[in-house]
Amino acid sequence: MAKRFYKDVCVEADVAGYVVKLDGRVLKTPGKKVLAFTSVTRADLVAAEWQAQGADILPGTMPCTRMMNVACEQTPYRRSELAKEYRAYMSTDLLCYRSQNPKDLAQRQEQSWQPVLDYVAKNYGITLASTTSIKAVDQPEKSLNNAADYANSKDNADLTLLLHFTASYGSAILALSVMERHLPVDTAFALSRLDEIYQNERWGADDEAVENNRLLLSELSLMAQLIEE
C-alpha cells in the first residue's frame, strides 16, 4: 500500500488530448506510459479518484483509473483478440438460454430478456436464437460477425469497457445495451441476475452474495461514466 505522495490534482489539455497531473507531474500507467484521455470527462473521473485518496493510496477504490490503465497499456495490442472474445460471448449469450420449469421463471425470462434481444437485433443486426436445451444453440454467423464488427468499432477505452461489462454480466447483449445507453447499469445487472433473484425470492438470499453483488454494481456504475458520449 503506497502512501499519498502528492497534494494537488488537476486536469490539463495536452497534445494527446487531456492528462491528469499530480503536483504538476503527468499521471502515468504502471508501465510508465502517459495516461492520456480523449475526453475531459474521462480525465475528470480519474482525477476525482486520485483527489479522493486519503493518506494511503487504495487501488481498489479507483475503478476508473484501473480501467483506463488497461485501455492505455493493453487494449491497443489486443484489439483483435478482444473482438474475437466478444464474438465468442455472443455465441453463448446468457439471454438465449431459458428455463422450461418452473413456468413462472420461464415467463419472467421471456418478458425480461426478449425485448433486449429484439432491440439489439433491430439496431445492430445481431439476431440470436434462444433455447430451453442445455445444448448450445448455433447462432447465425452473420450475427456473430456483426458482433465482432461492433467491438472493433469502439475506441480502446470503450472496447475495454465493453469486455468488462460482458464478463461482469455474463452477457454480450446486456453489455452492448449498456454501452449504447439502452439500459441503465443497474437494470442490466438485475437482468443478468434474474435467475438468482428468482431463487432468492423463493428460498432467501445469501448475505455474502448480496454484498458481492452490491460492490460489483457500485463499481460498474462508476465505470459506466467512462463510456464515450
Separate helix tally? 10
Strand percentage, roughly? 5-15%
Shape: globular
From the coordinates shown, what is the CATH architecture of the largest domain?
A: Orthogonal Bundle
What does this structure look like?
This protein is an alpha+beta fold and 229 residues long. The chain has two domains: 2-61, 2-Layer Sandwich (ATP12-like), CATH 3.30.2180.10; 76-224, ATP12 ATPase (ATP12-like fold, Orthogonal Bundle). Helix content is 56%, strand content 9%. The protein is built from ten helices and six strands, in the order βββββαβααααααααα. The strands form two sheets. Strands 2, 3, 4 and 5 form a four-stranded antiparallel β-sheet that branches. Strands 1-6 form a two-stranded antiparallel sheet. Helix 1 crosses helix 2, helix 3 packs antiparallel against helix 5 and helix 6 packs across helix 7. The chain is globular.
State the gist of this model:
This protein is of the alpha+beta class and 229 residues long. The chain is 56% helix and 9% strand. It folds into two domains: 60 residues, ATP12-like, CATH 3.30.2180; 149 residues, Orthogonal Bundle (ATP12-like fold).
